[in-house]
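Explain this record to help learners:
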Amino acid sequence: MDFLKLSVVLVGVIVFALACGQPAANTGANNAASKPANSANSSTSASTPQAEKSPVKDDVAMAAELYTTHCMTCHKDSGKGGKVTVDGKNLDVEDLTTDKKKARSDDKLAEDISEGAVDDGMPAFKDKLKPAEIALVVKHVRTLQAK
């Protein structure tokens, strides 16, 4: 259990460090507002890619946080699963990185997360996570599968 707490803290520190290392998304807009109108367009277009990158990093961080909070206890940080004991139940948790799971569509993975598999010990998350959050978890699972 201490390993789980340490892992959660470590992921939080990493997410925090990544977030602190990114420039503010509105910096370009503030600079554009303080420049003359003829140069505002060039500043605005230069800041647009930066503004587009920030939400992606936020999604990545949110996906990792959701996975850490709701999935890592059973599926481990690698997604490999294996034998775990949760709430006194001995489970043999599925490996999310197998070719079989990689071949599953995002919609099917989202359905698996939403509905769960009670017989296998997988809880349903439809009442705990919003559909957009489940989609982020699926994205994170895809990053684990790519490793």
